[in-house]
């Protein structure tokens, strides 16, 4: 499962990068001499299938990454379904808002960087940032609590493996959460750096889950049997 999941996630990010690079080539090189220059061409083609495709694959990658986070939260909280109720509700909001954002940006007058689409995009980013804040907090709390409870009953190596700094950073996807909050802030304040930070954030949509998968493959990640062991 994780091989297929990681492959699909990597494919989504590859498409995102290729599409955006090609769109940038069209914007700054191929059509730079059109009347009005690149800004005019960008405004006229902001809802083209090429640009919308980039937003669509980013939405899929985000949904996949958050889905893995939800599953990891469920595992780390000893498969207690109650621990996923609130995150799941936010997760549904994230998927819904991202889908609506992509659809609206594809409309004839749609523009993901202004108007209603911006509000929808902010809702999307706010939802996924909130989701990651909640899940990150829950995972960090669980790992730290587990470490304190078992520091006298587990070996030092086992504690380091499952409750060390690296485990907390990777399992809780702290870098991705921080990026999500930063992206939300620049979106809300319209600082002008949204596009640049969006690319970094989207790349971490794929990178953070891959790090978790790497730990799973190495046998270092939390599993259903971690607490019992």
Salient structural properties:
single chain; 229 residues; mainly alpha; elongated
Q: Give helix % range.
A: over 70%
Report the portion of residues in β strands: under 5%
Number of beta-strand segments: 0
Number of helices in the DSSP assignment: 9
Transmembrane segments: 7-28, 48-65, 85-107, 122-144, 165-189, 195-214
Keywords: Membrane, Transmembrane, Transmembrane helix
Protein name: Fungal pheromone STE3G-protein-coupled receptor
Organism: Coniophora puteana (strain RWD-64-598)
Topology:
Elements: H1 2-30, H2 37-45, H3 49-76, H4 85-105, H5 116-149, H6 156-163, H7 165-171, H8 174-189, H9 194-217
Give an account of the 3D structure:
With 229 residues, this protein is mainly α. The protein has one domain (2-217). The chain is built from 9 helices and no strands. The protein has helices spanning 2-30, 37-45, 49-76, 85-105, 116-149, 156-163, 165-171, 174-189, 194-217. Helix 6 (156-163) runs parallel beside helix 7 (165-171). The chain is elongated and about 70 Å long. The mean pLDDT is 81.
Summary, kept brief:
It comes from Coniophora puteana (strain RWD-64-598) (Brown rot fungus). By secondary structure, the chain is an all-alpha fold. It is 77% helix and 0% strand.
């Amino acid at each position: 499962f994780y091989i297929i999941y990681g492959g699909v996630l990597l494919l989504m990010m590859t498409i995102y990068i290729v599409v955006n690079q090609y769109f940038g080539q069209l914007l700054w090189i191929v059509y730079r001499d059109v009347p009005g220059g690149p800004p005019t061409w960008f405004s006229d083609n902001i809802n083209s299938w090429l640009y919308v495709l980039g937003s669509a694959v980013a939405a899929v990658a985000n949904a996949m990454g958050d889905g893995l986070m939800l599953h990891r939260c469920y595992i780390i909280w000893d498969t207690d379904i109650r621990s996923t109720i609130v995150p799941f509700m936010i997760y549904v909001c994230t998927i819904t808002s991202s889908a609506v954002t992509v659809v609206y940006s594809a409309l004839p007058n749609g523009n993901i960087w202004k108007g209603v689409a911006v509000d929808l995009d902010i809702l999307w980013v706010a939802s996924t940032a909130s989701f990651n804040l909640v899940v990150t907090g829950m995972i960090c709390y669980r790992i730290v609590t587990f470490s304190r409870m078992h520091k006298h009953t587990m070996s030092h190596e086992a504690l380091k493996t499952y409750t060390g700094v690296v485990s907390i950073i990777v399992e809780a996807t702290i870098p991705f959460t921080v990026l999500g909050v930063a992206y939300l802030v620049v979106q809300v304040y319209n600082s002008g750096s949204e596009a640049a930070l969006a690319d970094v954030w989207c790349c971490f949509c794929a990178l953070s889950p891959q790090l978790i998968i790497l730990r799973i493959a190495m046998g270092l990640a939390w599993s259903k049997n971690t607490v019992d062991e």
